[in-house]
Design a protein that fits this description.
This protein has 446 residues and is an alpha+beta fold. It has ten helices and eleven strands. The longest helix has 90 residues.
């Protein structure tokens, strides 16, 4: 938006690991991942086995069909057969009948170059013309061979539909005079099933054993990783707690020194100026009284500042009560404040304290500079992060105003940035003179 000031201090991804119940989660995810991987690998393995079986069966059928076609039928494919000679037809038919009885083939056809079936053990196909596939035409002309799964919906296979899935083999041959012809043999698809069963029996136990070993190796690795994450998370919590504790000590020290030193000195000066004003003549008396009142205002401001410096603690009733207490001063000034905090956030006491301190600083800024009439404070938590949002409809500020306030020594927002970074989270504030201010603090889930 135009005229908006934004401060974004989100750390680099992965700077602090976010783990909730690290040991249980890591082991659970590892086992689940291993199970999914096993299922996918088994399915992929079975697919590969079936694919290999199909390729192997097709190759086997092609070899068998080519050998039989050339040895058993090659010499019977003559010019007379292609021209429709009855004796030639009877000769190849007798050979074919014996062949079908002694082999696993279920059908034999002979095609002419004109794409007409000149012989078949199914007489109803003889003499019929069918459009051949380009691959089959190429095999017919080149004298090679080709095998594939039969497409039973083709017109030429109208009499094979009752035989189930089939493998078909095309072999190109030539008559003694050199005229091209095509011998087509059909074999049962059980060749694929038998090959698939054979490959599964060989490789499935090995595959399963490998997957079991892989899973068994992953479990101790997952446990070691989860324990390390747990230790890192515990060390992070300990360090953050130490930083907060040291911050509390330093805040108390600064508050005590300012209160017992500068504040008391200013109070003494104020009393001295007030006494001197009683004894002075005008116009000096008026100036001394004004200076005394100014010092009294400064003392009140310092005491208010000390109240914001002095460490705040989460009350026994919880974070919601603590934020409601902070909002009381704004409500006394006529500001409508809405607080939404779940009864159970599931965050650590340290993070709860950080949220309360951030809320105090942000609400103090609203009271001091925002001139807002409505403020909304919300805290939400999910499995990854806990978020504090303070939204107001005040006057907002522009980027240059934020920079100027920092140069003048107003470090509240900078301290919040450092607080978020130390906790492994992020702090972002967006403001404009038209839409007010939205401050967002995110902490990693613990």
């Amino acid at each position: 938006m135009d005229g908006a000031a934004t401060v974004d201090t989100r750390p680099e991804r992965g700077r602090h690991p976010v783990v909730r119940n690290p040991v249980v989660r890591a082991v659970a995810w590892s086992l689940l991942g291993s199970l999914v991987a096993c299922i996918l690998l088994v399915l992929a393995g079975l697919w590969a086995v079936n694919r290999a079986a199909a390729d192997r069966a097709v190759a086997q059928a092609r070899q068998l069909g080519e050998l039989d076609a050339r040895l058993a039928f090659g010499s019977y494919v003559t010019d007379a057969l292609i021209d429709g000679d009855h004796a030639a037809y009877q000769a190849i038919d007798e050979v074919t009948r014996r062949y079908l009885l002694s082999s696993i083939a279920v059908r034999v056809k002979v095609w002419s170059e004109a794409q007409v079936i000149v012989y078949s053990d199914e007489p109803r196909l003889v003499g019929r013309h069918f459009e051949m596939e380009d691959t089959d035409v190429q095999v017919l002309r080149s004298g090679g061979s080709h095998a594939d799964v039969t497409a039973l919906d083709k017109a030429e296979n109208v009499f094979e539909t009752n035989k189930g899935r089939l493998l078909e083999v095309y072999v190109g041959v030539r008559t003694p005079s050199g005229r091209p012809a095509l011998i087509e043999s059909y074999f049962p698809y059980r060749l694929v099933d038998d090959n698939a069963r054979d490959l599964r029996n060989r490789f499935t136990p090995v595959l399963l054993a490998g997957l079991v070993v892989l899973t068994a190796v992953q479990i101790p690795l997952a446990l070691a990783l989860s324990i390390r994450l747990h230790h890192n998370q515990r060390d992070r919590e300990r360090l953050l707690h130490h930083l907060v504790s040291r911050s509390d000590i330093e805040r108390r020290r600064i508050a005590a020194e300012v209160h017992d030193g500068a504040v008391q000195d200013l109070i003494g000066l104020g009393y001295g100026l007030a006494g001197a004003a009683e004894q002075a003549d005008e116009p000096v008396q008026g100036k001394l009284r004004a200076l005394s009142e100014g010092l009294s205002g400064t003392v009140r401001s310092l005491r208010g500042l000390l109240g914001s410096i002095y460490p705040v603690q989460v009350p026994p009733e919880g974070l919601a009560t603590g934020i409601e207490t902070l909002a009381a001063d704004l409500r006394l000034d006529g500001v409508r404040v809405t607080v939404k905090v779940p009864e159970s956030l599931g965050v650590s006491p340290t993070d709860e304290l950080l949220l309360l301190r951030a809320a105090r600083e942000l609400l103090r800024n609203v009271g001091s500079h925002g001139q807002a009439s409505d403020v909304q404070v919300s805290v939400t938590a999910n499995r990854d992060r806990t978020t504090l949002i303070v939204r107001d409809d005040g006057v907002g500020f522009e980027p240059k105003q934020l920079d100027e306030r920092r140069r003048q020594g107003h470090l509240g927002l900078r301290l919040l940035e450092d607080l978020a970074a130390d906790a492994g989270g992020s702090f972002m504030i967006t403001s404009s003179t038209e839409l007010g201010t939205v401050a967002r603090l995110e902490l990693p889930a613990t």
